[in-house]
Amino acid sequence: MTPKHLTLDAGRQAYRESGEGPAIVLLHGISSGAASWAPVAPLLAGYRMLAWDAPGYGESQPLAQAEPRAADYAARLDAWLDALGIERCVLVGHSLGAMMASAYAARRPERLAGVVLADPALGYRDADEAKRDSVYRSRWTMLAEQGHDAYAAARAPRLLREGADEADIARVREGMRRLHVEGFAQASWMLANDALEAYLPEGLPVPATVLCGDEDAITPPEACRALAERLGLPYRDIPRAGHASYIDAPEAFAEAVEAFARPLLAASTGTRKRTTP
């Protein structure tokens, strides 16, 4: 995927792009970035693949809000898709990206052909204050105190299945080395103080599905199945995959996304025009 950027009213927005055709938009999780989707993109031939670096990640300008909600990320996402000329797409949100995807579905359902909630983080808005504070401080403070190398070495294997390939661990580790404390702290605030289902009181307003690695120890399959049941959505395991299921099992992940997206995007070009930054 080719690194690119746009300058929006809110500042620089970085992303990666590959392919041609209807658009599939990829939103990474809290410890990752656009580059993490590289194993999946080549497996989805026939689509325009767009993976953003969330605000405060990579070369993307952080949000103005020190304590953002998923709706604030959705507003930036909307501006980015406007700038790219995307009229209709399938939105794939992984982990914390699933919360952003849900907020975006509530904001702009007419732009979405469908939504994939992959290994979705539910958020801790309804937890007690002590728990919310613990979640907020559990990641970015460790990064600030330990440094990128030590943090990545300790945390990267937890995102993958038991006995994960060393190359996959290295990919996750490298993504963590690119984290910025400010953007990481903003995303941690959102995780601790917002909730995915708060944006969906009547369920998803567009077709959707839930995916989860069958060895996910961070957002376990039973929790993801329960979410799918509450929202009335189909659920699918990704075999031999941990939390970063699209890195552990890119072929199975891509097949699941393609099976979901194909009928929804078959009749849509998804783009007004191409934008060349």
Quick overview:
Helix content is 39%, strand content 17%. The chain has helices spanning 70-84, 96-107, 129-137, 140-146, 148-155, 166-177, 181-193, 221-231, 245-248, 250-265; strands spanning 2-8, 11-18, 23-27, 48-52, 89-94, 112-118, 208-213, 235-238. It has an eight-stranded mixed β-sheet, with helices on both faces.
Largest sheet strand order? 1-2-4-3-5-6-7-8
Strand fraction band? 15-25%
Q: Structural class, please?
A: alpha/beta
Q: Average pLDDT value?
A: 95
Helix content: 25-40%
Oligomeric state of the chains in view: single chain
Number of E-type strands = 8
Note the gap between the termini.
Answer: 15 Å
Shape: globular
What gyration radius follows from the Cα positions, in whole Å?
17 Å
| Contiguous runs where pLDDT drops below 50 for at least 5 residues | 269-277
Order of helices and strands: EEEEHEHEHHHHHEHEHH
> How is the biggest beta sheet arranged?
8 strands, mixed
How many DSSP helices? 10
Protein name: Alpha/beta hydrolase
GO molecular function, one term: hydrolase activity
Domain AB hydrolase-1: 22-250
Keywords: Hydrolase
Describe the structure.
It comes from Halomonas koreensis. This is Alpha/beta hydrolase. The protein has 277 residues and is of the alpha/beta class. 39% of the residues lie in helices and 17% in strands. It has helices at 70-84, 96-107, 129-137, 140-146, 148-155, 166-177, 181-193, 221-231, 245-248, 250-265; strands at residues 2-8, 11-18, 23-27, 48-52, 89-94, 112-118, 208-213, 235-238. The protein has an eight-stranded mixed beta sheet with strand order 1-2-4-3-5-6-7-8, sandwiched between helices. β5, α2 (96-107) and β6 (112-118) form a beta-alpha-beta unit. It is globular. The relative contact order is 0.18.
